[in-house]
Amino acid sequence: MFPEIFCALAGVFAILGRFLASLASRIPVLKNYLPDIQQKHVTFSDRKGLQCIASLIATVEETPQSIPARTQGHFPEWLNGCLIRIGPGKFEFGKEKYNHWFDGMALLHQFRMEKGAVTYKSRFLQSDTYKINSVNNRIIISEFGTLALPDPCKSVLGRFMSKFESPAMTDNTNVNCVRYKGDYYISTETNYMNKVDPETLEKTEKVDWSKFVAVNGATAHPHYDPDGTTYNMGNSYGPHGSCYNVIQVPPQKEDLEETIHGARVICSIPFDQKMKPSYYHSFGMTKNYVIFIEQPLKMNLWKLITSKVRGKAFLDGISWEPQHNTRFHVVDKHTGQLLPGVFYSKPFISFHQINAFEDQDCVVVDLCCHDDGRILNAYQLQNLRKTGEGLDQVYNSVTKAFPRRFVLPLGISTRASVGQNLSPLTYSSATAVKQADGKIWCSHENLHHEDLEEEGGIEFPQINYAQCNGMKYRFFYGCGFRHLVGDSLIKVDVVTKKLKVWRRDGFYPSEPVFVPIPGASEEDGGVILSVVITPNQNESAFLLVLDAKTFEELGRAEVPVAIPYGFHGTFVPKQ
């Protein structure tokens, strides 16, 4: 009896769904209030029996002297240079422990490749934070998820009064290795970067963004023009208004001692909510435009200002507020003007953009998107180090990231009718529909089939940057997430939406880095580099090299040292 009733109800709901979808197409504003039937997306999972990865998120020793790697297969003779990787590698000082994965002290890794041979070394970044914590053998400087405790040697009154002291900003830059004016910097999202020598991995200088431009920090994912001009984004807070700022850094030095001298803000975008700016990790860029996504992952400035008094870490001030939609801002790189179009979509968050390009007077933006913004809490160290059902529950509680395409039409005619799809791109099902209030409601196209859901979605996207950034492209590469860290490497064809996957059970690859074959014209003419680690004690970590076209393994270089799971990196070609 119940199955028949259930089937009948399902039929009724299906008819009702089609009716509502039809109604929404005629009255576009209803899309803001109706379930997104056409774009229903599976982002949660029900996996069981996940392998414990606690040893991948644990303190390790540095390897400051180069050691030879044991190679299998072959590394192409033309592949000469260093893969530099960065991520957390120390999670405690004395008896005090960090709470969040993002808090660990920065550890730099270098895999050097030369004429088929590979060596490895690593060094802890000698940041001021690392040094003062080491000298005191406790956590002195607060991090993203960990509030530093008052000095236990102080009196009770002294410890109480220390809550009202201005907190020191960390210079533990553990997120990415980036370039400015030909030099390499280890960066995070504070106002500090650390300049390093990619050959020795030694820190050479600490750079403060706020000494050069009026921002309180910048992202760890800048973009580069072909001439070396670099763009980034950072926030500014002040009595005359708080803004998201687009920053431009010149391509060349006028003096050998320069760092980011000449940096300037070319556009400032006011916060939608004065005391609750959006958290963002990256942005998009085309040949002519910067695309900033204001998403409903909010930073409560009052909570951040009072965090030390309240005994809370920075993470406590970030909240997912899906009652707000996501907004796209488009800035002309050449004039610094914010374009007038008002583009919105349903709430999502994106940590990493894939690529963006221009076509038929539209900006096309491809992103890895989560439908829920509460993922940051899942990466508390106590969660990552769980076992059994507890680990499964953490993984299944977070949304997965999937690649989506949005189309932002720029030349909007005043004669465009309400309800009209303004996208002229016949190759994309993404729509941009004019609303009665003049705003443009954007619905995405999924850049994948259902098989990507079986891979746990995709993150850490990379492209053939030198050839394709800001241009129409076909392929991107990333990590599949059937675990809380990447457990596969994936190549996505954004035209056919087909996948190629590399996976080995019990092994966890890092963000793929594309290195082009010198002189290659094909977009996927090159190799993929990834550092693969494992919690299996009888197995070694290794540098993997894949043929980017076939996604077949060419070779690997094993090293007999423990390597923790990290964040980002870059390939530095031999000069």
Briefly say what this structure is.
12% of the residues lie in helices and 35% in strands. It is mainly β and 575 residues long.
Q: Provide mean pLDDT, rounded.
A: 90
Count of strand segments? 37
- The 3D shape can be described as globular
- Global structural class: mainly beta
* Number of individual domains: 1
Helix content: 10-25%
Low-confidence stretches: 1-42
Distance between the termini: 75 Å
What does this protein look like?
There is one protein chain. With 575 residues, this protein is mainly beta. It has one domain. The strands form nine sheets. Strands 2, 32, 33, 34, 35 and 36 form a six-stranded antiparallel β-sheet that branches. It has a six-stranded mixed β-sheet with strand order 16-17-20-21-26-25, with no helix packed on it. A five-stranded antiparallel β-sheet has the order 1-7-6-3-37, with no helix packed on it. β12 and β13 form a beta hairpin. The model is unreliable at 1-42 (pLDDT under 50). GO terms for molecular function: beta,beta-carotene-9',10'-cleaving oxygenase activity; beta-carotene 15,15'-dioxygenase activity; carotenoid dioxygenase activity; metal ion binding. It is an enzyme of class 1 (oxidoreductase). Its EC number is 1.13.11.71. Pfam families: RPE65. Keywords: Dioxygenase, Iron, Lipid metabolism, Metal-binding, Mitochondrion, Oxidoreductase.
